[in-house]
Design brief:
With about 300 residues, this protein is mainly β. About 5% of the residues lie in helices and about 50% in strands. The chain has two domains: about 150 residues, no CATH class; about 120 residues, Immunoglobulins (Immunoglobulin-like, Sandwich). The termini are far apart.
Length: about 300
């Protein structure tokens, strides 16, 4: 009888080992909205009291629509400048793009773009101290904020350590099975077990640790709004993710790891369990422009 169980276990392991390579939908995250141009007219060095025109072009560079805040006078896009010196005079216009909604937002479909224009009056000679030979340099800052999501489904292997099946595998036999990564923006979420698979299940109080790795593939800033672990095939205790909120802000081309310790599922034989990570986040991309105001030199 024991010999039959051993042979059956060998067959099962051979079958599983042939199915353990990662597969499914692999998606490379990329930014959705970008500020492609931010320019000044007539130039970036102006004289006191002159008119300064700034134009920003926002383009949807992805295959999904995205909505972003504009503001009544474009203040959500041009969010910072030397307001005490450069007078806006409420001259803000949308040169291209869909009309903004009642909530002062705009939606761009794939490959569409919008152009925004602000008109300023430069500071006076007295304000910049031109009589003392001084000039003034100001950094005008634009940004676009939009919400997006990432979702990853993985199958992790667990096994009862007392089962004979656990004695006939090597640490290289098993990996995450059937990874499916779907993302609508520049964030990719991955589930990374802290140890080799299969994860041993000892008793009803056993726990295991894994990491959620969030990778920012763009040049902007990620602010995680919501992060859920949907363990569909097993009942587990909730991980204390909120205690790790300092890991929820991720800057361009960087990643963050969030640790999670939770119950192991109740299994009697080598079994893959399904875990889904769902992330909702806000993405901010920025572009700056320096403008210098100096007096006419005779």
């Amino acid at each position: 009888m024991n010999q039959k169980i051993f042979v059956l276990s060998l067959v099962l392991v051979a079958f599983v080992a042939g199915c353990t390579s990662s597969g499914g939908t692999q998606s490379t995250g990329k930014e959705i909205l970008k500020i492609t141009d931010f320019d000044s007219f007539p130039r970036n060095i102006i004289h006191p009291g002159e008119t300064l025109i700034l134009r920003a072009t926002v383009k949807n560079v992805a295959d999904v629509p995205a909505t972003f805040n504009v503001g009544e006078y474009g203040e959500d896009i041009l969010f910072d400048y030397c307001e005490s010196l450069y007078l806006l005079e409420n001259r803000f216009v949308i040169l291209a793009g869909q009309p903004i909604t009642g909530e002062n937002t705009m939606t761009l479909d794939p490959h569409q773009e919008a152009m925004f224009q602000w008109t300023f009056t430069a500071p006076t000679e007295e304000e910049i101290g031109a009589d003392m030979g001084l000039s003034h340099e100001c950094t005008f800052k634009t940004q676009i904020k939009y919400e997006s999501s990432a979702r990853t489904t993985s199958y992790v292997y667990f096994a009862d350590q007392n089962e004979i099946i656990q004695s006939i595998y090597t640490s290289d036999d098993l990996n995450l099975k059937g990874d499916s990564i779907a993302t609508k923006g520049p964030v990719i979420a991955n589930l990374i077990p802290s140890g080799n698979q299969p994860i041993p299940v000892k008793d009803e109080t056993s726990v295991w640790t894994f990491y959620i790795q969030l990778q920012n593939t763009g040049d902007g800033i990620v602010d995680v709004i919501e992060l859920d672990i949907l363990e569909i095939d097993t009942d587990t205790q909730e991980c204390n993710i909120l205690a790790q909120q300092d890991q929820f802000k991720i800057y361009g081309q960087k990643s963050s790891r969030i640790a999670c310790t939770t119950d192991t599922p109740d299994v009697d034989i080598l079994t893959p369990k399904k875990y889904t990570i769902a992330v909702e986040y806000e993405y901010t991309t920025r572009k700056d422009l320096k403008i210098k105001t100096e007096a006419v030199k005779y």
